[in-house]
Amino acid sequence: MSVQRLTTTANITHAFWPILYLVWEDQILTQAEHQAISNFLSKQNWISVDERNYILGKLDPTAPPSPAEMRKWKQAIVEAAKDSATLTEASIQLAKGDETIKDNRLAQLQVGLPQLETALGIIGKEAIYNFKLGHSTLTQQYDTTDNFDIAKLTELLDGDQADTINKVKSLLSEPEFEYIDPSNIEEYREQVLRWCHTLADNGLGNAAFPKEFGGGGDMKGYFAIMETLSYHDLSLVIKFGVQFGLWGMSVHSLGTERHHRKYLQDIGTLQLPGCFAMTETGHGSNVKGIETTATYNHAEKTFTIHTPNENARKEYIGNAAVHGEAATVFAKLVINGHDYGVNAFVVPLRNKAKELLPGITIKDCGRKMGLNGVDNGVIYFDNVVIPKENMLDRFASVNEAGEFESPIGSDNRRFFTMLGTLVGGRIGIPRSALAASKSGLAIAIRYGNQRKQFGPEGSVEVPILNYRMHQRRLMPLLAKSYAMHFALQYLTQRFLDRKEEEMQEIEALAAGLKAYTTWHTTATLQECREACGGKGYLSENRIDALKNDTDVYTTFEGDNTVLTQLVAKSRLAEFKKSFSGMNLIGGISYLAGQARTSITEKNPLIKRRTDDEHLLDPQFQLNALRYREEEILSSAGRRIKRLVDEGMDSFDAVNVAQHHLVNVGLAYIERIVLEQFIQQVERTTDEGCRNTLKKLCDLYALITIEQNQGWYLEEDYMDGVKTKAIRKLVNQLCWDIRQDAVLLVNAFNIPGSCLAAPIAFL
């Protein structure tokens, strides 16, 4: 009799092994778990006293199950779990081992065990996977698929610049462009200079200069060269940009034919290395306030370039510390004691032996956070005399009588026209920054596709790119990078096709996209670094160089916050102009249009509409961004006007509204970027590429709306149910784009020698 009871006790309690194993798995049995099991057992009158005592004996915190007993339980549970869909089914399988157990007792187990699981917080359908060895899950199965032709997407991205881009990529893949250790600044600077000479020798330096002066006459090609070089070493890009872009193009844009004939051939072949000396210590972004002077000497017909104080020194000037032999110097033109504003002059700095010329003092800026292959310096001028013909006189000159002349009467218009010719720098920098973002994403996404971490219990580990949070970190950045690519192509073409009456808008667009793109690059590379874990922190994987070298992109060519406010001021000027030219009927029509928009967009049905067809409709997406842009713009205008009407100085009013103005600028740029992305999707003929770009475009649009969801809720433009639906759809798009992600970064076609990151080639 006692033997029969022992057999029965041992087998009926087998049904509780899964529960006992799970509560003891972490070696800590909580009081709540003990109480839940005890309460359950006390209510089951079909369990004998011996069986109940046996189970309770396994809950003694002073005598936990031994490792051998835990292994025994798990082996039995794993066997029972093979054909079980829930934890209860596995428990029943274990109990069935005893033929003396009656059917009614199995029925009691079938009902009671799920109740005990619930009391313990165990989800039976999920918990069973802890014991299914080698089972497959949806997270494990997700992988890269071929939804489009990579070559066709690369062709679309490169456009009509494919030949130029491929020429640069081919050069960068040559052995002489292998990376060197950047820790030795002197060697690094000389290597970067040698790289620039190689590019010049291959006809890339003078690409934008007119053909009659030895150039290629291809400004669009120059931008493509800058962007493609940015896949390699960013010190090279900046050195190249200073020499052939800032120095060369300032002579071309601000000078006249005699300057072109004298300088451009030597600049384009790097026989005359030079600088662009605009920034001063005390007047970084405020070019109009610079203090360096260029005083006209009537008797000698010369100019004296002078640094009047420490704050007027030219600072952070690329190419100045070691290599520069001349510079375009921006200084206030002074004639007979009268200040005629900022003008540009060619000033020699060194002779061919690299010896400083009289009156020139240059100090090395030294080691920086990044870009240490560029020799930045500080320049002082001590009454340096230059000939009259060294004034770059396209927009202003001094005649033979020593009088100031200009084809542009307005000082302000002349100043902004002069700076407008240099807007190309605000196109080259964001395109360079975007290339760095693409490099970071290529490294992080390829690594995430191969790097495995964690996984279902008893099964293989899962690629980290399959985890939803990893996708949430990287897929929106990938979508935004594609969006920025097409927006910058649009900006480039508008700049090349520019008409004088469009220049203010183009300059604002360039300023805004420069800020928007470089901020994006900073955020992208930080996320890529973190997404690669400790591997991303190793210099060999390049993200550190990309991060450090692009950090200053948010500052040079204009501080991003300042530039974004300039965009806002330009938009406000257009807003004011549109109102000032309106008659009564026009004003009423405008306000009626605004009212119609509000009525349509704020319709209760639209505010709460959450179906995918609506949320993925480009018209809804664009309307949402347009509404935000127009509403923020008009509210900023009203705010500043109210402050001025109340007696505040306009300078103070703008200062009070600075945060508002930054949002005006960003809302404008976000709308432009989405607009261009939608248009690109519409004109893409290849079905695979178009479908993939549509998903990226949808993700960019919805993530932008999601990031501003607080504003939309405050404005009563959307209800909470709609913003929740958008968040859900963003998650789904990230999941869908994951299968395209590796191919999407491969479509950038970045040379392997440029990535040079071991984790990108696992």
Overview of this structure, please?
The chain has 762 residues and is of the alpha+beta class. The protein contains 31 helices and 13 strands. It folds into 3 domains: 2-133, no CATH class; 174-422, Beta Barrel (Butyryl-CoA Dehydrogenase, subunit A, domain 2), CATH 2.40.110; 426-761, Up-down Bundle (Butyryl-CoA Dehydrogenase, subunit A, domain 3). Strand 2 (293-297) and strand 3 (302-306) form a beta hairpin. The radius of gyration is 34 Å and the shape is elongated. The chain starts with a helix and ends in a 7-residue tail after the last helix.
Layout of strands and helices, then pairs:
Elements: H1 2-12, H2 17-24, H3 31-42, H4 49-57, H5 67-81, H6 87-95, H7 103-120, H8 124-127, H9 138-141, H10 150-158, H11 162-172, H12 185-201, H13 219-229, H14 234-254, H15 257-268, E1 274-277, E2 293-297, E3 302-306, E4 314-317, E5 326-335, E6 338-348, E7 360-364, E8 377-381, E9 384-387, E10 397-398, E11 404-405, H16 411-420, H17 425-450, E12 452-453, E13 462-463, H18 468-496, H19 503-531, H20 543-550, H21 560-580, H22 584-601, H23 604-607, H24 612-615, H25 618-645, H26 650-656, H27 658-683, H28 687-707, H29 709-714, H30 720-746, H31 752-755
Parallel strand pairs: 1-5, 2-5
Antiparallel strand pairs: 2-3, 3-9, 4-8, 5-6, 7-8, 10-11, 12-13
Helix pairs in contact: 3-7, 5-6, 6-7, 11-13, 12-14, 13-17, 14-15, 14-17, 17-18, 17-19, 17-30, 18-19, 18-27, 18-28, 18-30, 19-20, 19-21, 19-27, 21-25, 21-27, 25-26, 25-27, 25-28, 27-28, 28-30
